[in-house]
């Protein structure tokens, strides 16, 4: 062979198969660009120097790993379409005398050309758009963006190395497939496996059981600890069930349509249904993949968008007042001193304390077993997952403070309590607290003031309102006897709002902390005081939620790109497979109008099933998504519903646009065939 022969053959092969290679190359360019941008932002010093930049880069660092794994899976999947399309061509070369060693050289040059275009184009686009991404990041964090342009060479090197490895693995996989196949198998690869499939009732039953089990877990799991444990189990079950049901269920659908003579014996339906029936195994797997990707897009984008939009709600849940203080004592001499310091500092700024929050409490963790709270772990009858899900954070609060805070006139007997529970319900009429006796639950309260400790933790909380301070002291003594040096404190929670901007709030917060520190230095017995400012922590919240939203958008775009490419390749590959059938049908009198009607019937029969199934998945997953977001301080359920519905409608509109575009590509292939 003369010099450059294999290179020319590789270029010719790419050019002649442009309909399949161009989307693949553009996808590779996009994946390289996305990987570089995320890696750039996770390493960029300008982002690190922004307020909240460290938290943002921590989130994006996790995103780099997710993108790398998905890039491998996605590019392998899409490349399989190219290999399948080219096998017939390679088989012809093989029969005409070209050995497999020579075919491997052609594949090597094709892979090298695609890799060079992908890396060159992807890194160039990534570098160009990285500045825009940095400015968007600055906007989300509330910082001023820098106009200095920079290139992170570490991100360039890491991205290039990742995709060199990916393309090498793709080449090895392609060589393996060609090496193991016989020339005749290569020639007939496009029609291989086209046998009338059988309905696999066992697979369908297993799919139904798995899906029902996953939905049951999502609907019934309330404890946040259990949500974290079972979430991935439910996800795996849904993925397996989706594949089983789409593969076996699509076969059953075709069989039912064929039995329905009023539907099947029509020109536009007869050809479409009979064509689908011969490739349902592959067709079902492709539809299932599209469904899973659609579900991932909807869940990821709606969840992260809701978190970012609801950031202020989350901040208010975590910090019920602009400035909050927890004093590690309930002695009035100390708590009054803290109030006095705060009042003096605020007054010096010409402001008033607004919406004051004040109550005493004992914060302690215990194990809920039935209707009994245990502090001694050895008394648990069994220690398993149920033991972990039984952990409760308790806040013991005197009734006097509850009435003063909410302006109520509740009364309690010595052996009675009021109860307010978060995240999970309490279903008993009595509550036994180890060392404090058994108490009757007089009333389950519907709400209480937001508690920052409860808001940002997975463990469910129980706010237990006891008759007096003596009963709170009794529980304190009981837990101290068990926990010893690790025992909890009795606190006073004190907070207030201010009618001023964030900068002044932060200044007031710092002055209060300094004044308390001076008092502690003057009096060694003065208790510890934790002082928090919502304004000071606002940037951190926006960084965390903004980073998640930014990453959600990028990953959502990648998943959408994957779904579009799968749909396109599915339509194109099936178009070439159906080309001969429609050629015959045109010869016997089928018009292009009838071909279009048949194509629309075929595509509409199954094309929108993934979108509908994805919607059902999201509906059943909603309770679990809601409980997961509660751990980030988001309790605004109407906002989550609104964002989820909006994302589904927008995605549905996009799905329709993709449908129209890909159906036209399919029509051009099958209607343009000539004998």
Instruction: Give the rounded overall mean pLDDT.
Output: 81
The fraction of residues in strands falls at 5-15%
Task: Please count the helical segments.
Answer: 23
Q: How is the biggest beta sheet arranged?
A: 7 strands, mixed, barrel
Our Rg estimate from Cα atoms comes to: 32 Å
Which terms summarize this structure?
675 residues, 10 strands, alpha+beta, seven-stranded mixed β-barrel, 3 domains
In short:
The chain is α+β, with helices and mostly antiparallel strands. The protein contains 23 helices and ten strands.
What does this structure look like?
The protein has a seven-stranded mixed beta barrel. The protein is an alpha+beta fold. The chain is built from 23 helices and ten strands. The mean pLDDT is 81. α2 (18-43) crosses α5 (100-141) and α12 packs parallel to α22. It has three domains: 1-192, no CATH class; 197-320 and 559-675, no CATH class; 321-538, no CATH class. A hairpin with a 2-residue loop joins β2 (354-369) and β3 (372-374). The longest helix is centred in the last third of the chain and has 54 residues, at 534-587.
Helices and strands in order, then pairings?
Elements: H1 5-16, H2 18-43, H3 45-49, H4 53-95, H5 100-141, H6 153-180, H7 183-187, H8 201-220, H9 224-259, H10 261-264, H11 267-277, H12 280-309, H13 311-318, E1 323-327, H14 332-348, E2 354-369, E3 372-374, H15 385-389, E4 391-398, H16 399-406, E5 416-422, E6 430-433, E7 437-444, H17 452-455, E8 461-466, H18 469-483, E9 490-497, H19 502-522, E10 529-533, H20 534-587, H21 592-607, H22 609-630, H23 637-671
Parallel strand pairs: 3-6, 4-8, 5-7
Antiparallel strand pairs: 1-9, 1-10, 2-3, 2-4, 2-9, 5-8, 6-7
Helix pairs in contact: 1-2, 1-5, 2-4, 2-5, 2-6, 2-20, 4-6, 4-20, 5-6, 8-9, 9-11, 9-12, 9-22, 11-21, 12-20, 12-22, 12-23, 13-20, 14-19, 20-23, 21-23
């Amino acid at each position: 062979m003369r010099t450059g022969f294999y290179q020319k053959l590789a270029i010719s092969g790419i050019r002649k198969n442009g309909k399949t290679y161009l989307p693949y190359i553009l996808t590779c360019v996009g994946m390289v660009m996305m990987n570089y941008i995320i890696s750039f932002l996770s390493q960029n010093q300008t982002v690190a120097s922004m307020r909240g930049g460290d938290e943002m880069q921590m989130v994006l660092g996790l995103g780099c790993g997710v993108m790398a794994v998905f890039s491998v899976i996605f590019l392998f999947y899409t490349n399989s379409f190219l290999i399948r399309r080219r096998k017939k061509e390679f088989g012809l070369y093989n029969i005409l005398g070209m050995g497999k060693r020579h075919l491997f050289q052609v594949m090597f040059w094709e892979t090298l050309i695609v890799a060079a275009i992908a890396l060159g184009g992807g890194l160039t686009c990534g570098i160009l758009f990285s500045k825009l991404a940095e400015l968007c990041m600055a906007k989300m964090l509330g910082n001023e963006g820098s106009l200095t342009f920079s290139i992170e060479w570490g991100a360039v090197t890491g991205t290039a190395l990742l995709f060199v490895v990916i393309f090498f693995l793709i080449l090895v996989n392609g060589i393996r497939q060609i090496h193991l196949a016989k020339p005749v198998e290569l020639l007939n690869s496009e029609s291989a496996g086209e046998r009338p499939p059988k309905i696999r009732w066992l697979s369908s039953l297993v799919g139904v059981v798995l899906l029902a089990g996953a939905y049951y877990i999502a609907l019934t799991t309330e404890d946040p600890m259990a949500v974290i444990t079972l979430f991935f189990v439910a996800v795996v079950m849904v993925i397996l069930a989706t594949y089983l049901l789409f593969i076996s269920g699509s076969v059953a659908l075709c069989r039912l349509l064929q039995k329905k003579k009023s539907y099947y014996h029509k020109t536009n339906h007869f050809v479409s249904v009979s064509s689908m029936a011969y490739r349902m195994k592959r067709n079902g797997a492709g539809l299932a993949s599209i469904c899973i990707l659609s579900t991932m897009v909807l869940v990821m984008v709606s969840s992260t968008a809701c978190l970012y939009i609801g950031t202020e709600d989350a901040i208010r849940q975590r910090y019920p007042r602009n400035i909050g203080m927890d004093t590690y004592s309930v002695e009035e001499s100390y708590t009054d001193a803290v109030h006095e310091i705060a009042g003096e500092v605020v007054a010096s700024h010409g402001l008033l304390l607004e919406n004051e929050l004040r109550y005493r409490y004992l914060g302690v963790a215990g194990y809920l077993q039935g209707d009994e709270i245990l502090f001694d772990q050895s008394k648990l009858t069994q220690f398993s997952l149920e033991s972990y899900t039984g952990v409760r954070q308790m806040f013991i609060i005197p009734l006097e403070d509850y009435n003063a805070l909410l302006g109520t006139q509740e009364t309690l007997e010595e052996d009675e309590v009021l109860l307010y529970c978060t995240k999970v319900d309490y279903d008993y009429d009595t509550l036994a607290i180890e060392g404090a006796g058994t108490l009757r639950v007089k009333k389950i309260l519907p709400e209480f003031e937001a508690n920052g400790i409860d808001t940002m933790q997975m463990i469910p909380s129980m706010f237990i309102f006891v008759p007096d301070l003596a009963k709170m002291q009794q529980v304190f003594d009981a837990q101290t006897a068990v926990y010893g040096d690790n025992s909890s404190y009795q606190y006073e929670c004190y907070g207030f709002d201010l009618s001023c901007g964030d900068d002044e709030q932060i200044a007031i917060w710092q002055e209060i902390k300094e004044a308390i520190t001076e008092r502690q230095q003057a009096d060694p017995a003065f208790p510890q005081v934790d002082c928090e400012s919502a304004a000071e922590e606002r940037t951190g919240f926006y960084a965390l939620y903004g980073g998640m939203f930014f990453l959600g958008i990028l990953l959502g775009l990648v998943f959408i790109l994957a779904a579009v490419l799968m749909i396109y390749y599915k339509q194109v590959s099936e178009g070439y497979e159906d080309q001969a059938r429609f050629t015959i049908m045109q010869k016997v009198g089928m018009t292009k109008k009838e071909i279009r009607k048949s194509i629309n019937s075929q595509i509409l029969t199954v094309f929108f099933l993934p979108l509908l199934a994805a919607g059902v998945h999201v509906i059943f997953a909603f309770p679990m998504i809601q409980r997961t977001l509660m751990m980030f301080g988001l309790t605004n359920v109407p906002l989550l519903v609104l964002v989820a519905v909006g994302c589904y409608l927008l995605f549905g509109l996009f799905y329709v646009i993709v449908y129209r575009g890909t159906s036209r590509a399919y029509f051009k292939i099958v209607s343009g065939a000539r004998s």
